[in-house]
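Input (structure):
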């Protein structure tokens, strides 16, 4: 099997695994499921998160029983191995939306080799949207997609992503101001993987945060953006990695503007 064929096999498996997890989440959606908290009042989790993660891992283990798994829930790894293959799983990204009955949530699965994604899938079951990125392009519901070609920031819509805790709300406010000062409009959806996928499809022109994103919130979506022709960097403008501080994703044409907005958060 060639390297390209191996990458495509992992991408296809990521899609099957994400669909399995998303099916579990969709079945529990708006079912009155109990809500728990983890590390704060807004850091919520449900049994559906745990069940969806198990469903994803079961699919992965059928083909790759020995590959490590990085997952948000339970006792899975919390950091991406620098060498060899691994799988990164967010069983329900956007759990706050999920528990409120808001449709913007999904299951994201990324396959990585030596820390770099080779395939990724994000399935948003309540919206009926599935994004799949392999080694050669990205598709939404089976149709190829690409980032927007908007180059005028005053025509662009940008999203602040990842959550700022209560002690850092000044940074959330600064991020919002930096965006509305530069761009046509701002959106916030409460689901990092969904908004990165929207950059890949051209629905959004940029996404930014100054915090370090967890790998399960970011790696799959970053792969989508890059395969769609976009740019993803850290706050220094260097190529983004799973351990970077800050995440700035754009269509490429307005990247410097999005990057400058991200840098302004901490000024």
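Output (sequence):
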């Amino acid at each position: 099997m060639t390297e390209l064929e191996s990458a495509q096999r992992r991408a296809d498996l990521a899609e099957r695994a994400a669909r399995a997890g998303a099916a579990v989440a969709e079945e529990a959606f708006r079912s009155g499921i109990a809500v728990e908290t983890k590390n704060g009042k807004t850091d919520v989790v449900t049994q559906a998160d745990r069940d969806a993660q198990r469903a994803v891992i079961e699919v992965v283990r059928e083909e790759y029983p020995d590959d490590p798994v990085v997952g948000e829930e339970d006792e899975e790894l919390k950091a991406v191995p620098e060498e060899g293959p691994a799988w990164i799983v967010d069983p329900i990204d956007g759990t706050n939306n999920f528990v409120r009955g808001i449709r913007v949530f999904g299951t994201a699965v990324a396959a990585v080799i030596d820390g770099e994604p080779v395939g990724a899938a994000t399935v948003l079951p309540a919206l009926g949207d599935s994004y799949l990125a392999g080694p050669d392009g990205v598709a939404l519901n089976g149709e190829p997609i690409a980032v927007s070609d908007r180059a005028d920031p005053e025509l662009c819509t940008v999203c602040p992503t990842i959550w700022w805790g209560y002690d850092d709300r000044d940074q959330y406010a600064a991020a919002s101001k930096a965006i509305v000062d530069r761009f046509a409009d701002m959106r916030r959806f409460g689901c990092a993987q969904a908004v990165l996928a929207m950059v890949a499809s051209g629905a959004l022109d940029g996404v930014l945060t100054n915090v370090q994103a967890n790998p399960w919130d970011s790696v799959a979506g970053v792969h989508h953006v890059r395969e769609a022709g976009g740019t993803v960097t850290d706050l220094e403008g260097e190529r983004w990695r799973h351990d970077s501080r800050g995440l700035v994703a754009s269509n490429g044409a307005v990247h410097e503007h999005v990057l400058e907005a991200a840098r302004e958060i901490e000024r």
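Notes: DSSP finds seven helices and 14 strands in the chain. The chain has a mean pLDDT of 95.
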